């Protein structure tokens, strides 16, 4: 559907995005993860063409810009107008007539299993319903590529579940989806693949299962020499070689326990972002 090729963006001396390459495919949901300031929002804006890259390019398989559906992290609604007035106005900017926008809104509300709230002013709506309004507006014109920046923000648990169902439905209809989120449990369930960013660079680009293959397998609990602490120190290691190097560098530690397991998704991501214990010791 589209491919980012070595895109980069600098603001002053800060490298917001540093030579990032990846692709989005039709019928697939890609998660864009990373700490605040990692470059996620800038990457999305580069894909959209809202800002120009300093180098690199975004290539579209059809040769022309796809039809975008975009939900920014910041709310962009007119608060003194009703939700449906916002939706109709935003739809008109995409060439969608009022009647079609109203019909499409009803269909999306039905998919989300929500009663029609759109007659209310945006200022009177909860953050969750404001977010749903933005999501509907982003889908009203049946876009090819969906870009969501923290779309779960403000949604209550039932709304989150309904939105996840909607995402999977869009994916099944051949849409390419990119979703930036800090809710790792959602990323694990929803996404087919993960882009993990750190300081503007990609530190992982691959499948969910690959996260477990490329991240730590050994968990060590130990006591430092001469320590009176009854609670052991915990450390994690990517492989047995890293574990043995740690032992060689710290011959006086007292091992409490070593375990080998698949671990948790969020722990794997944390280690990819922060490095294993050996790397932290040398930092």
Summarize the SSE layout with pairings:
Blueprint: E1 2-11, E2 14-24, E3 29-33, H1 40-48, E4 55-60, E5 68-71, H2 83-92, H3 98-111, H4 127-139, E6 145-149, H5 157-172, E7 176-180, H6 184-190, E8 193-198, E9 201-207, H7 208-213, E10 218-223, E11 233-237, H8 240-249, E12 254-260, H9 265-274, H10 277-282
Parallel strand pairs: 3-7, 3-8, 5-6, 6-7
Antiparallel strand pairs: 1-2, 1-4, 8-9, 10-11, 10-12
Helix pairs in contact: 2-3, 2-4
CATH class of the largest domain: Alpha Beta
Largest sheet: 6 strands, mixed
Q: Supply the CATH superfamily name of the largest domain.
A: P-loop containing nucleotide triphosphate hydrolases
Number of helices: 10
Counting helices, strands and paired strands, the structural category is alpha/beta
Helix content: 25-40%
Order of helices and strands: EEEHEEHHHEHEHEEHEEHEHH
Shape: elongated
Mean pLDDT: 87
Number of domains: 2
CATH architecture group name of the largest domain: 3-Layer(aba) Sandwich
pLDDT < 50 stretches: 276-283
CATH fold descriptor of the largest domain: Rossmann fold
CA(first)-CA(last) distance: 39 Å
Structural Rg: 23 Å
Number of strands: 12
Strand line-up across the major sheet: 5-6-7-3-8-9
């Amino acid at each position: 559907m589209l491919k980012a090729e070595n895109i980069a963006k600098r603001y002053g001396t800060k490298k917001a995005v540093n030579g990032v390459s990846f692709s989005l495919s039709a019928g697939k949901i890609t998660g864009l993860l990373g700490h605040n300031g990692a470059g996620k929002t800038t990457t999305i804006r580069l894909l959209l063409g809202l800002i120009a890259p300093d180098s690199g390019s975004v290539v579209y398989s059809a040769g022309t810009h796809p039809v975008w559906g975009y939900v920014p992290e910041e709310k962009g609604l007119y608060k003194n107008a009703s939700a449906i007035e916002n939706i109709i106005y935003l739809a008109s900017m995409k060439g969608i007539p009022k009647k079609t926008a109203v019909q499409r809104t009803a269909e999306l509300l039905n998919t989300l299993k929500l009663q029609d709230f759109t007659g209310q002013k945006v200022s009177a709506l909860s953050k969750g319903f404001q977010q749903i309004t933005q999501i509907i507006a982003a889908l009203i014109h049946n876009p090819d590529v969906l870009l969501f920046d923290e779309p779960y923000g403000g949604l209550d648990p039932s709304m989150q579940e309904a939105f996840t169902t909607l995402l999977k439905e869009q994916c099944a209809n051949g849409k390419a989806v990119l979703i930036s989120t800090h809710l790792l449990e959602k990323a694990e369930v929803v996404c087919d693949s993960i882009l993990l960013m750190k300081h503007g660079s990609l530190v992982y680009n691959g499948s969910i299962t690959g996260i477990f293959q490329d991240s730590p397998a050994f968990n060590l609990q130990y006591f430092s020499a001469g320590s009176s602490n009854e609670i052991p120190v915990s450390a994690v290691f990517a492989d047995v070689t890293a574990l043995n190097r740690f032992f060689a560098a710290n011959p006086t530690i007292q091992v409490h326990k070593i375990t080998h397991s698949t671990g948790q998704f969020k722990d794997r991501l944390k280690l990819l972002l922060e490095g294993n214990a050996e790397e932290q010791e040398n930092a």
